[in-house]
Design brief:
The complex is a heterodimer of chains A (234) and B (249). By secondary structure, chain A is mainly α. Helices cover 73% and strands 0% of the residues of chain A. In chain A, helix 6 packs across helix 8 (168-195). With 249 residues, chain B is an alpha+beta fold. Chain B is elongated, with a radius of gyration of 20 Å. Classes of the chains: A mainly alpha (234), B alpha+beta (249). Chains A and B meet through helix 1, helix 2, helix 4 and helix 8 of A and helix 2, helix 6 and helix 8 of B.
Chain lengths: 234, 249
């Protein structure tokens, strides 16, 4: 057996294992999905009026005060999510390159698994959208002209959101990003069954249902906002 | 039926390889892919050329020797069927076939359509076997195994080692193969005594030679043994379990 030549042909030993990287991607991916679900739930408060939405935003800034400083909860979430993002993106890059190398010169073509195949690209689009989203509604740098930052006493999240999505280009970006998120989430959440080692027939079926329900729920819930703004309901 | 066959020709592992085009005039619809290659080779030999090297043994789907890639799909267009059991009649009237070896960096081409699948052997050597000293043969039914467990274990043991799962994977992963071994052996009482050790050994070997699994699901689509896609998850199930327990069993 030509084991030594084969081994050196594929990979070297000093590295973080593919096993660990895949597991890290699954855990961080779920973290984003759960965050996105909570975020979507918060977004739905827009349908209960500007006060409900702004009140929720204001509460987020002051949650657990005085146990935590003001913005404490937000900063904890930002740091955890930022670390998770770095892990998720770096792991995906390493795994992408390992996959290409293990496949070799002749690429696999002719399959129709486009959701799986486009994971790196939907991921990059989401990264671009995330950057815009933070610049738009957290920092206001790319926000609508009438953007107003939160003060110690009140938040203007509702007005900022409606103004931002009222801009055709920004609104389209939100719409498109949600469709990309749907594809990324459906495959990512379903695929995590592999990383979490779920082999049972019923477990895998249930996992697939959870993946679809969560992905579609997050996407549709979020999409009601730009659609609500365009139709004048918000 | 007139067929245009483009076949991969490669002198040696070091050779870059090239496509060679042939017209086969009397390809009857009942021919299998291997029959077609035989017919093509007769034609090439009659013209004084060197026949196309390809591997085959049982020609009934049991041995796993014959996998080739047809029009980009390992084993050919019929799902979950080995190359030897794929017949021209099922190809939807295709008039052009591109036949090449199973592709993966782990499977170097030996010659033409013949590949070196030693990387799969390495997985079996690492842990795809039972190395328990069980003493003298025990009484049958001394270790009862439920019918469902026995059937499920047997389903995972059905792998014929053809390597199509690896060739179908855009990432060159062998999770279906390795997971089938792990899932099969984890369910049976004697092999389960070295369950943890086996998982670590196979996962480690898998790391060294193959790519990451992205759950494309293409592997299960081409598997002639019908191994369920759930096998890919057995790699992490067994790996996580072994890591958590930190023991040999």
């Amino acid at each position: 057996m030509t084991s030594t030549t084969l081994r050196s042909a594929t990979t070297s030993r000093a590295r973080v294992s593919t096993f660990t990287l895949k597991l890290a991607m699954a855990v961080t991916g779920w973290l984003f999905a759960l965050f996105a679900a909570v975020h979507m739930y918060g977004n739905l408060k827009a349908w209960f009026g500007a006060d409900a939405y702004n009140g929720y935003a204001h509460w987020l800034h002051n949650a657990l005060y005085p146990l935590l400083p003001r913005d404490g909860l937000l900063w904890i979430m930002r740091i955890v999510l930022a670390v998770a993002l770095v892990v998720h993106v770096v792991a995906s890059l390493v795994l992408y390159l390992r996959g290409r190398r293990a496949r070799g010169r002749f690429r696999r073509r002719g399959h129709n698994r486009w959701a799986a195949a486009t994971m790196p690209w939907t991921g990059l689009l989401l990264l671009a959208f995330l950057t815009f989203h933070i610049l738009d509604l957290t920092l206001g740098i790319a926000g609508a002209a009438e953007y107003r930052a939160a003060t110690a006493d009140e938040s203007f999240a509702y007005q900022n959101t409606v103004a931002s999505m009222g801009r055709p280009l920004a609104g389209a970006a939100y719409l498109l990003a949600m469709l990309v998120l749907l594809v990324h989430l459906v495959h990512g959440l379903w695929s995590s069954a592999t990383e979490f080692g779920l082999t049972g027939r019923r477990t895998r079926k249930a996992w697939k249902v959870i993946a679809y329900v969560l992905a579609i729920g997050i996407t549709v819930g979020n999409l009601t906002l730009p659609i609500g703004v365009w139709t004048g309901l918000l | 039926m007139k067929l245009t066959v483009e076949v991969w020709r490669q002198e040696s592992p070091a050779d870059a390889g090239r496509w060679e085009r042939h017209e086969v005039d009397d390809a009857a619809s009942h021919l299998s892919l291997l029959d077609l290659l035989d017919l093509l080779n007769d034609q090439i030999a009659a013209a004084g050329g060197e026949p196309v090297a390809y591997e085959s043994d049982c020609r009934e789907g049991a041995c796993g020797a014959c996998g080739v890639t047809v029009n980009g799909v390992p084993h050919g267009p019929v799902p979950r069927t080995p190359s030897c059991r794929q017949h021209l009649r099922s190809f939807d009237g295709a008039t052009r076939l591109r036949i090449e070896p199973l592709r993966s960096a782990a499977f170097p081409v030996v010659r033409d359509l013949v590949i070196d699948r030693s990387a799969l052997d390495a997985l079996v050597t690492a842990g795809g076997h039972v190395a328990i000293n069980s003493g003298t043969a025990s009484d049958a039914e001394a270790l009862p195994i439920g019918h469902d467990d026995a059937e499920t274990a047997l389903d995972f043991a059905a792998c014929i080692g053809c390597g199509a799962c690896v060739a179908a994977c855009p990432n060159g992963a062998a999770h279906l193969f390795a997971g089938a071994k792990l899932a099969h052996l984890a369910m049976l009482p004697q092999p389960a005594l070295e369950r943890g050790r086996r998982a670590r050994a196979i996962v480690d070997e898998l790391e060294q030679r193959f790519g990451p699994c992205s759950t494309y699901g293409e592997c299960a689509e081409v598997c002639p043994a019908g191994i369920s896609l759930a096998a890919v998850a057995a790699v992490h199930r067994e790996g996580i379990r072994a890591w958590w327990r930190g023991r040999d069993d």
